[in-house]
Amino acid sequence: MPINNKIKSIQPYKPADGGYKIRLDANESYITPDDEILNKINDSVSAVPINRYPDPNAVELCKAFAEYYRINPEYVTAGNGSDELLFVIFTAFTQKGDTVVTLNPDFSMYKFYAHIAECRNIEIEKGQDLQINVDKLIDICNTSNAKLLVFSNPCNPTSLALEREKVIKIIQNVNALVVLDEAYMDFYDQSLISSAHEYENLILLRTCSKMMGLAALRAGFAVANKNLTEALRKCKSPYNVNAYTQAAAATVLRMRDYLDNCRRQIIDSKNFLYKQLTEIASKTGWKVFDSKTNFVFLKPDNSAELFGFLCSQSILVRKIDKYLRITAGSRQENLAVIAAIKQYIGE
Ligand SMILES: *Cc1c(COP(=O)(O)O)cnc(C)c1O
């Protein structure tokens, strides 16, 4: 059976294998729920009738999500992680040959889905400061007649973020559908989630995988006006979110105090890691980027060498070209990675 050419060039997504004592490479939450929380999750999962198909529209889950963010559930579509929703968005809103604008560095999956959908991908290189140049972005989208623009805010991997007003300027001035990936917006305060339905051309994505610490469940959400929501629901597979995930994620979304606490702890952890790395950078001349996420992005003198050294200490971080991305971990994990970096610079 011949394999399509477009598939041949794809490198499979390969998360790092185990064996590392400390893993700060995937921006997961370091918090594991205590027994009380776990028991509540387990109780909700035990009540699932395993012989029945799940609710195709994940109504309870969407309601719990909408309640948590104080929005209307009519604008919410649930997915098997926001990753699946990206796939559905490309299926619903692009056709072969359409132009898709992405930025670099940004979340690598956008390019992948554009490729699978056989779109023409224009990738805008960010400058040295890694900020998004809003006017240039708008101009390129419109002169290239882009059908879809997708970017993350706050950005993975740069950890930088645009203020709300700047994002609104982009949405209002491009002719394209804007897919605004707010996977890390729980760590910042410039979300557009409350007003997403007011824009004709906006789909906003959120996930339970980062601040909420539910990466294993695969629960993500799209928020958009009724017209776009209807198109998304038509194009997704009917039972895309399994019943265990629906039950467990809805339970956690209804634990506001628990989630607020998770958010605070992770931000504290990030601030600690950021401060320590900034101190190191002031001695070495490395660059540390201002972080609005649960990770710190830095540019050491030699990213490959530092990455290799950390691996040798059984600490896994993420190397992205000349940069390293380090997820905020537990106090002990943060201290370990800082100690290792200090050892590396000979301090
Ligand atoms: C982690 C991440 C996602 C994936 O979220 P899932 O809901 O786990 O699929 C999406 N976008 C960005 C920018 C991410 O970093």
Q: How does this structure look, described?
A:
- The protein is α/β, with parallel strands linked by helices and 347 residues long.
- It folds into two domains: 14-29 and 257-344, Alpha-Beta Complex (Aspartate Aminotransferase, domain 1), CATH 3.90.1150.10; 35-254, Aspartate Aminotransferase, domain 2.
- 41% of the residues lie in helices and 16% in strands.
- It contains twelve helices and 13 strands.
- It has helices at 5-8, 35-46, 59-69, 81-93, 109-116, 134-143, 164-173, 226-235, 243-253, 256-284, 303-312, 331-344, and strands at residues 22-23, 76-79, 99-104, 120-125, 148-152, 177-181, 202-207, 220-224, 287-288, 295-299, 315-316, 318-320, 323-327.
- It has a seven-stranded mixed sheet with strand order 2-8-7-6-5-3-4, with helices on both faces. Strands 9-10-13-12 form a four-stranded antiparallel sheet, covered by helices on one side.
- Strand 12 and strand 13 form a beta hairpin.
- It is globular and about 60 Å long.
- The termini are far apart.
- The structure holds pyridoxal-5'-phosphate.
- The site of pyridoxal-5'-phosphate has 13 residues, from helix 4.
- Pyridoxal-5'-phosphate binds next to helix 4.
